[in-house]
Amino acid sequence: MIEQLKEFLSYDFVRSALIAGSLAAILGAVVGYFVVIRKVGFAAHALAHVGFTGATGAALFGISPLNGMLAISLVAGAMMGVFGNRLHRSEIAIGMVLSVCLGVGTLFLTLYSGFAGQASAILFGNIFGVSEQQIIQIAYLSAASLGTLCVFSRKLLFASIQPDLAEARGVSLSMLSMVFMVILAVSVTLASQVVGILLVFTLIIGPAGIAARLFRGFWSGTAASVGIALAAVWSGILLACATNWPPSFWITGILFVLYLAVEIICRFVLRTER
Amino acid sequence: MTPALSIVDAGVRLGGLDILRAVNAEIAPGEFIGIFGPNGAGKSTLIRCILGLAPLVSGTISIFGVPAGRANRMIGYMPQSRVSLEGTALSARSMVAAVAAGDRWGLPWSGRALRAEVERAIELAGVEEYADRPFAVLSGGERQRVGLAQALLGTPQLLLLDEPLASLDPRNQMLLIERVAEIKKTTRTTILFTAHDVNPLLGVMDRVLYIAGGEAAIGSLDEVITSEALSHLYKTEIRVIRVEGNIFIIAAEGGVIEAARHD
Question: How far is Cα B108 from Cα B122, in angstroms, rounded to an integer?
Answer without folding.
Answer: 18
